[in-house]
Amino acid sequence: AGHQAILDGGGALENAFALGAQGVTLDGFEIRNYTGDGVTSAQEVQSLDASLQNLFIHDTRRGIARVEGVVEHSRISQTAKAGVEDSAHLDLTRVEIVQNIGAGVNLVNGTFTNCTIADNAVGLEQSSGTVTNSIIWKNAGGDFELLKGLTISFSIFDLLDHGDPGLVIDAGHNTNDGVK
User: How far is 167 from 2, CA to CA, in rounded Å?
Assistant: First the structure.
């Protein structure tokens, strides 16, 4: 909605953005049809302090990979692998991560506020951090996998459908030391 530019890889170009500097801001792009990633790091090390806002990333290998920073008001869908992957830390606010063939999110640590993670192969995979006011729902392989230290507050998730063991909810708050 209201994207400033459409970047279309035509199914032939690898990555839409390969960040090679610290503190990069991307705002208002639709990124589609790339054989690689929508947004990634140009180096072996992760790009730090990126600010990714108002992005619609779809039909790529991964949506966001090897980037650290903030993602806000964005949608990542229909990726061939994970929506968000191989990032050590991201803070996501009002981000929809839906209908990805791989995991919705696979990262070491992150915060998720007012996010939707749904209809992916797995919701959160190998993740720790905080989930607040978010919906994690109807992910085919389960909503949570290989978690350590995840705190869930005031969120909706599909525990009954997928039988994720070890999650104990206490007044809308959960702290995990390991699941699955």
Answer: 39
Residue written as token pair 């108002």? 54
Q: How much is the pTM?
A: 0.85
CA distance linking residue 177 with residue 171, whole number of Å: 18
Return left, alpha or beta for 34; rule: phi > 0 is left, psi -120 to 50 is alpha, else beta: beta
Residues 79-122 have pLDDT tens digits of 999 999 988 889 999 999 999 999 999 988 889 999 999 999 98
Backbone angles phi, psi at 159, to 5 degrees: -65, -40
Strand 56-58 to 67-77 pairing:
parallel
Beta pairing partners, 178: none
d(CA 171, CA 108): 26
Q: Which residue has the tokens 């063991």?
A: 165
Got the DSSP string for 106-173? EEEEEEEES-EEESSSEEEES--EEEES-EEE--TT-SEESBSSEEEES-EE-HHHHT-TT---BTTE
Is it the case that residue 176 has pLDDT exceeding 90? no
